[in-house]
Design goal:
With 645 residues, the protein is an alpha+beta fold. The protein is built from 22 helices and 23 strands.
């Protein structure tokens, strides 16, 4: 038996050595081919017509892909412009998952059932009572915390654990040298102070005053930007809900009828209003739990001694949802929370503070603010609260009835007088200004139905009632202004604003160049800026990862860190603005701070290098499978999946 175990260990070590060699080769290959130009550019190959991809004979069906997509997006609608991005990233992840599974089979790497069980216990300790596995609680916890079924959760966990094994192997030899740490330390801590002038086109636009001839010439070159769409104005008759409401009264008999027909919603269950202070123990070791208990007992003593419970909750509670409210959980009913908590909450007298209560979440201290026994609220208690819904329903019913009558009248003749209809149904009349299909129809709003009806009516026709925010409206066309090429007179203000905006960009760049040239010719930075009407500001000392108010980040003026004091930098474009600066001073990194920052910098650099190494492995593995014909992508099926339906 011992010899067998030793042989298995030798075999395992041999496989690890082989796998590390393969991984290093893959990384090298990846670097030679400059990583992978993109998973979606792979060959289509021969594969099942309902498979979006095939990895070493393992197909990813469109059904599986759709299920994963729905899970990732939580079944929410994804904007069309983002759908392709989400889908391609998901396919990348699923292909890499199957590629790892295939590679693991070749290298003899596996995730054992025991390893999975141990990880699950770490993640969901509440699914165990001592050493007893609580199957139903486990399934409930998985659903509650992940939104997955047990099978989905365990499959995802297996994939993640396998990936972790590969990541550990790939990054085992990655390290960070002291020189790299010191270089990063200097990069982060070196500071510079600058004088600067920020030249914004938006500040210059109003100073640009073209002559009539200049604006006319510019307008002639940009005629296509000024097409005037068709515009229409309307006469309307409005059934105003606010006016209808003002003339409507609700009797007590109507309120009582509503109360009696909805009596169940006024029943109050046994409930209790509570506050709590939670000390979480989920995922903690026994020693850590013992320390947490000591802390909880100390807070309990304070609460029992008269300390303000709400202040204690804000200071000590681990319940992020309630601590800001002083631990207030509101009203809870029987069956709403875990049994241990519920038993104490419903038995504790009003105003009392409990002893420590241990639940699956940790230790909790409970304070009862109020008890309420099961009863049905009286009509007098709820009268004011039901007045609004009863009124709303009555107004809705009346408006629907009148709208139906209006619709019937229009169906009899859609060319009758709008004024006659308004008089018959006591409607408010009015007119709108001419609007295009993208503009609000005056005070009537901007609903799609309004535009569709207004721009489809023929002159003389009357529309059916259209629901809008404040009631129902009937339209008839007043005037139609056909689409046409806009004249400068019609669009003068917009054309002038566009001209100023365009020219201000050129002017800002020109001012920046002028400032730079003047300083090079010997003028001081302040004098040169003043002669151009520019304001000079002085920054605080900032590092590369710091910021300059109203300008941007230190990285955007990285050249300043290598310039001499007094030197003026070349103009830098930041977004649409231009920056010209002069170096005022340098602050070298303080060597004494290196020891304080060393561990953090080293850890961050290591993480970055490990991520890069694993990304290189990822790309190399995918590239190798593609070159061997073991990875095919059904590009046509992916295009259909991401195209608008």
């Amino acid at each position: 038996m011992l010899r067998s175990i030793q042989q298995r260990d030798l075999d395992r070590n041999r496989w690890i050595k082989i796998s590390m060699g393969v991984i290093l080769v893959l990384i090298c290959v990846s670097m030679v081919v400059t990583l992978v130009p993109g998973l979606m550019s792979g060959p289509t190959g021969d594969q099942s017509p309902d498979a979006v991809a095939t990895v070493a004979g393992q197909s990813i069906s469109i059904t599986e892909f759709q299920q994963q997509f729905d899970q990732v997006t939580r079944n929410q609608s994804v904007p069309q412009m983002m759908r392709g991005i989400y889908a391609n990233q998901l396919l990348n992840d699923m292909v890499f998952r199957d590629a790892l599974e295939y590679e693991a089979g070749l290298l003899g790497i596996q995730v054992t059932t025991q390893q999975e069980a141990e990880r699950i216990r770490e993640l969901l300790p509440s699914a165990w009572s001592g050493n007893t596995w609580l199957k139903d609680r486990y399934a409930a916890e998985v659903q509650q915390q992940t939104g997955m079924t047990v099978d989905q959760f365990e499959s995802a966990l297996h994939d993640q654990m396998l990936m972790d094994q590969f990541r550990e192997m790939v990054t085992a030899g990655v390290n960070v040298s002291p020189a790299e740490v010191e270089q990063e330390f200097r990069w982060r801590n070196e500071k510079v102070k600058i004088d600067y002038a920020l030249i914004k086109p938006s500040d210059l636009a109003s100073s640009i005053h073209p002559s009539d001839a200049e604006l006319s010439a510019w307008f002639a070159k940009n005629l296509g930007r000024y097409q005037i769409p068709e515009k229409r104005s309307a006469r309307y008759a409005l059934l105003d809900l606010a006016k209808l409401r003002a003339g409507t009264q609700i009797s007590d008999d109507a309120l009582k009828a509503y109360y009696n027909s909805n009596i169940d919603q006024f029943k109050v269950e046994n409930r209790v209003h509570v506050e709590d202070i939670l000390f979480k123990t989920v995922g903690q070791t026994d020693a850590e739990v013992a320390e947490i208990r000591k802390k909880a007992e100390d807070v309990l003593k304070q609460a029992k001694s008269g300390a303000n419970f709400e202040d204690l909750a804000k200071q000590y509670s681990d319940d992020d949802a309630s601590k800001a409210k002083g631990g207030d959980l509101g009203w809870i009913v029987e069956g709403q929370t875990v049994p241990e908590f519920e038993k104490v909450a419903f038995s504790l007298p009003k105003g009392q503070v409990s002893d420590l209560v241990q639940t699956q979440y940790g230790f909790q201290i409970i304070k009862v603010l109020e008890h309420e026994t099961a009863h049905t609220k009286s009509f007098e208690e709820v009268r004011d609260s039901i007045l609004q819904p009863v009124m709303d329903q009555k107004i809705t019913d009346e408006a629907n009835t009148i709208s139906d009558q209006m619709a019937s009248a229009v169906r009899q003749s859609d060319r009758q007088s709008l004024d006659d209809l308004a008089k018959k149904f006591n409607l408010q009349t009015g007119e709108t200004q001419p609007v295009s299909v993208t503009e609000p129809v005056g005070q009537l709003g901007n609903t799609p139905d309004l535009h569709q009806v207004l721009f489809s009516l023929h002159p003389g026709e009357i529309s059916q009632p259209i629901p809008i925010d404040n009631g129902y409206v009937i339209l008839t066309v007043k005037d139609i202004l056909p689409a046409h090429q806009g004249t400068l007179a019609e669009v003068h203000d917009q054309a002038l604003a566009d001209y100023q905006k365009e020219k201000s960009v050129d002017l800002a760049r020109s001012r920046a160049d002028q400032l730079s040239k003047l300083t090079q010719s010997g003028q001081s930075f302040d004098q040169a800026a003043k002669s151009l009407g520019l304001t000079v500001k002085t920054s605080d000392s900032f590092a590369r990862n710091g910021s300059i108010p109203d300008v941007g980040t230190g990285r955007q003026v990285d050249a300043a860190f290598n310039m001499m004091v007094g030197q003026v930098g070349a103009p830098v474009q930041i977004d649409s603005n231009w920056l010209v600066y002069r170096v005022v001073s340098h602050d070298a990194a303080n060597p004494d701070d290196l020891a304080k920052q060393k561990d953090g910098i080293e850890q961050q650099l290591l993480q970055t290098k490990q991520n890069a190494a694993f990304e290189a492995f990822h790309n190399a593995l995918v590239d190798q499978l593609k070159s061997e014909g073991k990875l095919t992508i059904n590009s046509d099926l992916m295009k259909r999946f991401t195209s608008p339906s």
